[in-house]
Amino acid sequence: MDNSSKVLVLDKAVLILGALEAGPHSLAELVAATGIARPTAHRLAVALEFHRFVTRDLQGRFILGNRAAELAASAGEDKLLIVAPTALERLRDATGESAQLFRRHGEQRICVASAERLTGLRDSVPTGTLLTMQAGSAAQILVAWEDAQKIQRTLSRPGGAKFTTSTLAAVRRRGWAQSVGEREAGVASVSAPVRAPNGKVVAAVSISGPIERLSRQPGRIHSAAVVATADRLSEYLAKGK
Fold this sequence. Notes:
The protein has ten helices and eight strands. It is α+β, with helices and mostly antiparallel strands. A hairpin with a 5-residue loop joins strand 1 and strand 2.
């Protein structure tokens, strides 16, 4: 079957975006992944970067940008972002802690929705915040169900991850993750996976707050509420409503 639209420049741009779905790529890696000639690949990647469909990570590699998500949200096609604010507010009210929704963004994770605790000491993670994929319960969720190669790549990145393959195996077994002082000293969190209809983990629902309130076993207190919220969001995506 011919997957070409016959508009060659567009087809090549889509090839580049498709390659970047797998994670960061240098120019040489883009050329190898797409088969596009190096000068053309560079020209198209830079053009996509200009239009914010592509951006760069801290190592200068190409990664997916925010523009596609912005267009989807504006068109009302991103169902998850439509319902997430209400779901997070309910989770915040049920747990008394700030709630967030994270997605993977290249080698980082981005907070795409949040509902902060209204009063008192809180962990503030505004929408749009980029955080590491190597620490924190949401990072554990977004890594745990990836293939072995991607898991190993995350664990072996410079600086190392704060969690291990054993940690991720436990996350998969129980269906939720917790962290205590992993991402930031004094902060604890609990997260659970949001799944697309095909079962793929597409986001992580989290609550976070001071260890003094959440304790050193925050999952014992809040995992049920966090998992219930994640399951409701997954069911919403499955129904397509």
